[in-house]
Amino acid sequence: MRKARLLRSRHPRSTLRLGQISGIDIGLHWSIALITGLISLTLAATILPAAAPGQPGAFYIITSLATAALFLASIVGHELGHSVVAQRNGVGVKHITLFALGGVAVLESEPPTAGAAGRIALAGPAVSVGVGLGALALAATGEVIGLPILVTSALYWLGIINLILAVFNMLPALPLDGGRVLQAALWHRNGERHQATISAARLGRYIGWAMVGLGLWQLSSGGAGLWTAVIGWFVVSSARTEGRHAKRQQRAVRMAERSAAQREAGATGIPLIDELFTTVRPPSSGTPRGTVIDVEGRLVD
Fold first, then answer.
1. What is this structure's pTM?
2. Among the four residues 30, 179, 187, 299, which has the most C-beta atoms within 10 Å?
3. Choosing from 79, 108, 143, 296, which is the catalytic residue?
4. In order along the chain (301 residues), what is the average pLDDT of each group of 10 residues?
5. Is 12 buried (19+), middle (13-18) or exposed (0-12) by CB count in 10 A?
6. 79 part of the active site
């Protein structure tokens, strides 16, 4: 299949353009600094010291920064998985942007078929699973050949977090990848893309609100549920937006279909609505006054 021509698209002003991979612009939103700092701080302060105690403090900081950078690279790989499969299915990609809650690949158009939509959605989690398993394999190999425990601990964390990312993204909630797989399945079954999007978005809102509730419960119990609540709210907002957009598109398609049907009916001589009404004509000779006559001149009882 011939690839669709890619259109250059500028990132928002709040995004730092890094360059291109496979002809796709890659950018960093300013908010990515939040997640990078949070990951680095968590690794350096708790996870790495617990896994590899007794190391110099600078080693923890350097390793945590390198691990955070590798994690961001794995997110780029996740989005490139979506993008490359989209290109192979005739859908152009405008750009990839990383932000505080992950990454997004902005496509130029909707996938042409339900099968293409499903393949594009599954490609990202497949890359995350591959990266996760690869990192775990490297960590296990590193233990055998005697790599520093700090390095193998970072690789184990990177592998596990990518597998968690893949599982989380497969939740059946738009805008997550699992929600898009559900959307594709409903589209394939019912043959109606917009209704499939509306149904997947509705489930996405329910799951998002459940995440918000879970996060608030964790906070009330003294746990760290803020991030869960924030991600849940993001899911709710995005699902609501996609659902509303799909409803507008659905109404537009139905109006266009009705308009086309009326034009076709008029062209083929089928009476239109305004031709079905009877009219009152002046009575001809021999016709009782006040008789109702239709447009063909026939008497109406």
1. 0.77
2. 179
3. 79
4. 37 67 83 86 91 90 94 92 92 86 84 93 95 96 91 95 94 91 93 90 93 89 80 90 88 81 64 38 46 41 48
5. exposed
6. yes
